[in-house]
Write a structure and sequence with these properties.
The structure holds two protein chains of two kinds.
Chain A lengths: L1 H6 L1 H7 L7 H15 L4 E3 H15 L3 E5 L15 H5 L4 E3 L4 H14 L2 E5 L10 H9 L1 H4 L9 E5 L15 H5 L5 E3 L4 H13 L4 E5 L7 E3 L2 H4 L11 E4 L4 E5 L2 H15 L4 E5 L2 E3 L3 H11 L2 E4 L8 H13 L8 E3 L10 H7 L9 H15 L1
Parallel strand pairs in A: 2-3, 2-4, 4-5, 5-7, 6-7, 10-11, 10-13, 13-14
Antiparallel strand pairs in A: 1-8, 6-12, 9-11
Helix pairs in contact in A: 4-10, 6-7, 13-14
Chain B lengths: L1 H17 L16 H4 L14 E3 L6 E4 L5 E3 L8 E4 L1 H26 L14 H10 L5 E3 L5 H6 L4 H8 L33 H14 L6 E6 L6 H12 L4 E7 L2 E2 L2 E2 H4 L14 E5 L3 H16 L5 E6 L18 H11 L1 H11 L5 H24 L20 E3 L7 E3 L2
Parallel strand pairs in B: 5-6, 6-7, 7-11, 10-11
Antiparallel strand pairs in B: 1-2, 2-4, 3-10, 8-9, 12-13
Helix pairs in contact in B: 3-4, 3-12, 3-13, 4-10, 6-13, 7-8
Classes of the chains: A alpha/beta, B alpha/beta.
Protein name (chain B): pyruvate dehydrogenase (acetyl-transferring)
Subunit structure (chain B): Tetramer of 2 alpha and 2 beta subunits.
InterPro entries (chain B): DH_E1, PDH_E1_Alpha_Subunit, THDP-binding
Chain lengths: 376, 421
């Protein structure tokens, strides 16, 4: 346990009370560190993001955080909790509710050499600023012949939450994933959150970091390596969460958890499912996806977003282009329903993919049928 | 301010009584034909005057009057109504403005012979703004502008060869031929582009200013936009942020009175810009008078560096060409107006008159200088024509700064799939 603490240098320094550290802040961090020191090393996605941002801000003075309610409110979803107290108002900025303005400001600051982390309270609001994301951030390195790069991170919750209805529930992975010049990351668990956030902040290109509100509070076990301040994950590499032989499910973000649960259920029926956690929409890890499908011969893509021109469509196209002759069955997609998100709970359940625990459910039966067909 | 609005009403009333332009609709913009020649200044006769100038005895310095009064907003006092200059500054400014003028004329010809493609927005007529600004700044200050950026690029120390190469898409261009007319950059001299989206510049400029302040640089940022962009919502957002966070930002409005083809009085409820924000001070300068622009910029830079926050600088200027090369520029304004501006307010003529009156050089020497500048610019254009286009691999280069191991696809995914080293 002390070993874990000694490797977390910024934490240790603060706890020692150096720099006339604020006692209240030290106490808060001590309490937080206790979570890191727990014997099973479990942290929530929220803590993973918070610690990653904290460590990167400590390591590099050019990193700063900007967004609505990130400071005094401690973050609308508490992801930036404690950062204002630790780094001060020059580096943790509460913005007015002016997405176009502060996003453009972030891009301008990044062009000059700072490393902004711009929070959108949800990515639905980023639509007000999407011109700066695409035209000012994504395209600039190319348009300027490589003279001006934009080392900025745009982060915030993406996709459906629960009961927040049509204007607050859209998944933007497909939109941003289409744009050359952006890197688009989609963490699932705490390890993803820590490693990808650190990689995103260190990356010299604009990164769209799509989190998920319902994952913030979920706890995941993490190794000592993940807790180390130098831990990063490579951008553009998917992770095989679970190995299998009969079917490949390619998915990202919250749906990874659903796929894993479904895989457990299907295992009881003798179907072995391989779950690929994309981690990165752009660049897309076509190698891992295709290698997996060549092994299992069946593909199912799973996402929460709308089906037409979605992430799954690109994955299916990639597999059909590169691994057609390995397929034993047509590629399948499971997506959110082609509707604006309704509010009523029963309709909302129909609009987003569900895991039916206990009975394998809609897509499970489709999967079973496909596997059964192949065996005949 | 009130004086200029009543001048405007008098002018338009007088014109309505008498105007009968050939081919005019008789309404709207065509009624207000000549007032632009006079501008909004309360002191309309100022435009007829050749600016008074005189040498200070023994010092070699020349005092030049700035005839058009500065309009001030939220400021107790403004820039002085006279400028002190030297022969060197006058000759350099004359040269710089003439280079811009000749470059734009060459660009016009290159566009018509289809060596420049797409969009080409020319700056001739507005030279005093680019050059007057540079007289008050250094290359450690940052400048960012929209798509009418050729003159700003040259003023920031970009060469004519880099400019023409970029316009023609050659690999020796300032953006390696990948940007084009609207996307010129010069990072070394802190020229941050070259942006095609109207209204996007003020927030980007606020960001540059934020970074300057964060890094404790003793410099200012000039974010340039036009009267057409002056109604954009994100401009207001940027103004709020700049004032709230006390950023060293000069918002320069190049007011050439037409957003593409829509005259400002048809786009804006309030046609002036320098006084639009109740919490940001502003100055309106004569954008056709290099010294007016220079003095206003000196004042604004001092204001920002004293930590007083952002300031607006409206330059009353005029573009001789249409909005872009596909716009003749005469369907929404009269040729008489354009001619009048050339005759009465041309920024280069103004400096020429001072130089000749002060007998700094002879008429012949000035003619020779004109010829030399013209030859140099045309040589640069000719040289740029001979430069090569970027190689095919450039298609996939610089999409990202960190692109090792990334794969990019061409149109035929089977044939063109490139992996970055």
């Amino acid at each position: 346990m002390l070993g874990a603490l000694s490797r977390n240098r910024p934490l240790l320094a603060l706890l020692r009370g150096g720099n006339g550290g604020d006692k209240a802040a030290s106490a808060a961090l001590w309490a937080a560190s206790k979570r890191f020191m727990s014997s099973d090393n479990t942290i929530t996605v929220r803590e993973a993001l918070n610690s990653a941002i904290d460590e990167e801000m400590s390591a590099d003075n050019k990193v700063f955080v900007m967004g609505e309610e990130v400071g005094e409110y401690q973050g609308a979803y508490k992801v930036t909790k404690g950062l204002l107290q630790k780094f001060g108002p020059d580096r943790v900025l509460d913005t007015p509710i002016t997405e176009a303005g502060f996003t453009g400001l972030g891009v301008g600051a990044a062009m000059y050499g700072l490393k902004p982390i711009v929070e959108f309270m949800t990515f639905n609001f980023a639509m007000q600023a999407i011109d700066h994301l695409i035209n000012s951030a994504a395209k600039t390195n190319y348009m300027s012949g490589g003279t001006i790069n934009v080392p900025i991170v745009f982060r915030g919750p993406n996709g459906a939450a629960a009961g927040v209805a049509a204007q607050h529930s859209q998944c933007f992975a497909a939109w941003y994933g289409q744009v050359p010049g952006l890197k688009v990351l989609v963490p699932y668990d705490a390890e993803d959150a820590r490693g990808l956030m650190k990689a995103a902040i260190r990356d010299p290109d604009p990164v769209v970091f799509l989190e998920n509100e319902l994952l913030y509070g979920e706890s995941f076990p993490v190794s000592q390596e993940v807790l180390d301040p130098s831990f990063t994950l490579p951008i553009g590499k998917a992770k095989i969460m679970r190995e299998g032989d009969d079917l490949t499910i390619v998915t990202f973000s919250k749906m990874v958890g659903y796929a894993l649960k479904a895989a457990d259920e299907l295992a009881k029926e003798g179907i072995s499912v391989e779950v690929v956690n994309l981690r990165s929409i752009r660049p897309l890890d076509r190698e891992t996806i295709n290698a997996s499908v060549r092994k299992t011969s069946r593909l199912l893509t799973l996402e929460e977003g709308w089906p037409q021109h979605g992430v799954g469509a690109e994955i299916c196209a990639s597999v059909v282009e590169e691994s057609f002759y390995y397929l034993d069955a047509p590629v399948e997609r499971i997506c959110g329903a082609d509707v604006p998100m309704p509010y009523a709970a029963n309709l909302e359940r129909l609009a987003v993919p569900q895991v039916r625990l206990g009975s394998v459910g809609l897509y499970g039966s489709r999967v079973k049928k496909r596997c059964a067909d192949a065996c005949m | 301010m009130n004086g200029s609005r009543s001048m405007l009403r008098l002018a338009t009333a007088a014109l309505r009584q008498g105007s009968s332009l050939p081919g005019s609709a008789g309404k709207g913009a065509y009624c207000k034909t000549e007032f632009l020649v006079r501008g909004y200044a309360a002191d309309a006769d100022a435009y007829d005057k050749m600016p008074d100038s005189g040498k200070k005895p023994d010092s070699g310095e020349i005092v030049v009057e700035i005839p058009v009064k500065f309009n001030l907003h939220l400021l107790e006092s403004g820039p002085p109504q006279e400028a002190i200059t030297t022969k060197e500054e006058l000759m350099k400014s004359y040269t710089d403005m003439s280079v811009i003028r000749r470059a734009e004329i060459s660009a016009d010809m290159l566009f018509k012979s289809q060596m420049i493609r797409g969009f080409c927005h020319l700056y001739d007529g507005q030279e005093a703004v680019a050059v007057g600004m540079e007289r008050a700044l250094t290359f450690d200050d940052s400048v960012i502008t929209a798509y009418r950026d050729h003159g700003i690029f040259l003023g920031r120390g970009g060469t004519a060869l880099e400019l023409f190469s970029e316009l023609m898409g050659k690999k020796t261009g300032c953006a390696l031929g990948k940007g084009g007319s609207m996307h010129l950059y010069h990072r070394k001299h802190n020229f941050w582009g070259g942006w095609g989206i109207v209204g996007s510049v003020p927030p980007l400029g606020a960001g540059l200013a934020f970074a300057h302040k964060y890094m404790k640089k003793p410099n200012v940022v000039v974010a340039i936009y036009g009267d057409g962009a002056g109604n954009q919502g994100q401009l207001y957002e940027a103004q709020n942020l700049a004032a709230l966070w006390n950023l060293p930002l000069i918002l320069l409005i190049e007011n050439n009175h037409f957003g593409m083809g829509t005259a400002e009085w048809r786009a804006s409820k309030k046609v002036t810009h320098y006084d639009r924000v109740p919490y940001i001070p502003g100055i309106k300068a004569d954008g056709m008078d290099m010294f007016s622009v220079r003095e206003a910029f000196k004042y604004c830079k001092e204001h920002c560096l004293a930590g007083k926050g952002p300031i607006m600088l409206e330059a009353d200027t005029y573009r001789y060409h249409g909005h872009s090369m596909s716009d003749p520029g005469s369907t929404y304004r009269s040729r008489k107006e354009i001619q009048g501006m050339r005759q009465e307010r041309d920024p280069i003529e103004r400096i020429r008159k001072i130089i000749l009156t002060e007998e700094l050089v002879t008429k012949e020497e000035l003619k020779d200088l004109d010829k030399k500048i013209r030859a140099e610019v045309e040589d640069a254009a000719a040289k740029a024509r001979e430069e090569p286009f970027p190689s095919d691999d450039e298609l996939f280069a610089n999409i990202y700064k960190a692109d090792s191991g990334l794969v990019a696809y061409g149109c035929d995914r089977r044939k063109t799939k490139v992996e970055m080293p």
